[in-house]
Design a protein that fits this description.
The protein is of the alpha/beta class. 34% of the residues lie in helices and 28% in strands. The strands form 2 sheets. The protein has a 9-stranded mixed β-sheet with strand order 14-13-12-11-7-10-9-8-15. The chain has a 6-stranded parallel β-sheet with strand order 3-2-1-4-5-6, sandwiched between helices. Strand 1, helix 1 and strand 2 form a beta-alpha-beta unit. The longest helix is centred in the C-terminal third of the chain and has 20 residues. The protein is globular. The N and C termini lie far apart (45 Å).
Length: 333
Amino acid sequence: MKKLRWGILGCAQIAVNDIIPAIRQSELGEVAAIASRDESKAGRTAESLGIPQAYGCYEALLADDSIDAVYIPLPNHMHYEWTIRAAEAGKHILCEKPLSLNVREAEQMVEACGKHGVKLAEAFMYRYHPRYDRILEIIRSGEIGELRGLQGTFTFNIGPASDNIRLKADMGGGALYDVGCYLISAGRLLLGREPKAATVRSLVSTEYGDVDLMAAGLLEFGDGLNMTFQCGMRAEFRDMVEIIGTDGRIGIPDAFLPWPGLTANYFITVKGERREEQAEALNTYRLQVDSFARSILNAEPLAFDPMDAVANMKVIDACLQSAIEETRVELPQ
């Protein structure tokens, strides 16, 4: 069986702890090389993880003709440059979320990938769990009635101020970029439409690099359909989504992080009657890399078109603008 040969651009924790193990567990992928701007770090990481090839710069990995696709776990402000350079090198690209720092960059990244005939996917792994297909099926069936709204929360406690890249504004730090993007993505996915306006208020702390440490928002989807959300990096861990209808609601605990040890089950309440639907706690990183590999090896359509990442970035832009200006921002339609 032919497998997709992956190159990893960087030794970030998410690559080492999540994506590389997921590729190894996948049906259609193998990790062929890893690169770092620190050659010794690349070598140590490759040796510890059994990766055949290590490079001391990203350019060298992109020049390796044996590599089919790259995973980009670099800091947010580097996604734009290295996605375009990977596209120019003819590599398919799985890029960490958020795809870029603004919608203009995202559009140019998608354009570059189209020009060079490579596929681009934004790494929102949660969407690949089959429970979301089932939840969408329940919504479309009308079981919970007409949709009335959605609420979501994604917070964690980053601890005392540090040099963490999430706390560096010039590197794309902040709660909206880091975890708010998940909530925005889920709202668009589950409500099945694009928001028309955003109102966000945030907590910015000079102690924490002047990034949005916490943010709470309202997204208006039109026809009275709204989403409220809270995201943050200095609060107790919470990770949930609730979809509200006229006749019922669907609650999704561990909405973005279902893996072994966490629950993937969700709850449907209709007219006061509550039931739990079982879902296996699958490794969504593995599901994601196999889906991406099938799109390349089997010429299947991508599970999510890269223009979805542009649409998500458009909402993030509006949320950031609203938080800075403390005003309601209408999105271009």
